[in-house]
Write a structure and sequence with these properties.
four-stranded antiparallel sheet, 6 strands, single chain
Length: 154
């Protein structure tokens, strides 16, 4: 009887955590503007989105804009999604992606970061794999040029 009660409690806790996980945000390609550089989010191979700690959805035209924005926040975002370059327009949680830096198909901000779903096979984008933390560290080290002064997003 105690086992059943413990299992039921665990199941309720897991379901509760699942219901708190933010769902994949929508992206209005060619309409939404990047909340970091203000460019229109057009190239479906590089778009990204984040949900702030306050619950607001932000859009980004490139992985590097998202990385720079993320590192400027006092609190980590609730969730981060990035387009799979091998399936344009499809956003995945950052934990489900592998990252590469390539000269093939330059990214909107020119740093060449691309993301591909870990489950995807080899793609034209593949090169040395990077983690999300390595992408963020590289962007922080190299810096970003923006067209406007960007702000938080809370």
């Amino acid at each position: 009887m105690i086992r059943h009660a413990a299992a039921a409690t665990a199941l309720v806790a897991v379901l509760g955590l699942m219901s708190c996980a933010p769902s994949t945000p929508s992206m209005a390609w060619d309409v939404d503007n990047c909340d970091f550089c203000r460019m229109t989010v057009s190239d479906q191979r590089f778009g990204a989105a984040a949900i702030t700690s306050g619950g607001r959805t932000l859009h980004f035209d490139s992985i590097e804009c998202l990385a720079a924005w993320t590192d400027a926040q006092p609190e980590p975002p609730r969730g981060v999604w990035i387009a799979d370059a091998s399936a344009p327009g499809t956003l995945y949680p950052v934990a489900e992606l592998r990252f590469h830096r390539t000269a093939t198909g330059k990214s909107p901000m020119g740093k060449g970061f691309v993301a591909v779903a870990k489950a995807a096979g080899r793609t034209d984008w593949d090169g040395p794999a990077l983690t999300w933390d390595e992408v963020r560290a590289t962007v922080a080290k190299e810096g970003m040029q923006t067209t406007t002064a960007h702000a938080g997003g809370h």
